[in-house]
Amino acid sequence: MLQEMWEITGEYVVIKALENGVTIIGLTRGRDTKFHHSEKLDKGEIMIAQFTEHTSAIKIRGRVELLTKHGSLKTDD
């Protein structure tokens, strides 16, 4: 039960695009890491992403502000 709850309420990150054309790619969990989802954001758009039983990593290309429970950061210019 506790494991199922974690999978549903895994850690979230907030990604705010600081420029047009930001790419966000979800990477799978398991023996082989693969791309499983991608999104494009334009300046000012926000995406809320969650780490789940399927998503173990998120790759971001472009200038963004990233908010997590550990703090916030911005990519370099």
From TrEMBL:
Belongs to the MtrB family. This is Transcription attenuation protein MtrB. It comes from Pelotomaculum schinkii. Keywords: RNA-binding, Transcription, Transcription regulation. SUPFAM superfamilies: TRAP-like. Residues 10-76 form the Tryptophan RNA-binding attenuator protein domain. NCBIfam families: PRK13251.1. One of its GO terms (biological process) is regulation of DNA-templated transcription. One of its GO terms (molecular function) is RNA binding. InterPro entries: MtrB (IPR000824), Trp_RNA-bd_attenuator-like_dom (IPR016031), Trp_RNA-bd_attenuator_dom (IPR023558). Oligomer of 11 identical subunits arranged in doughnut-like structure.
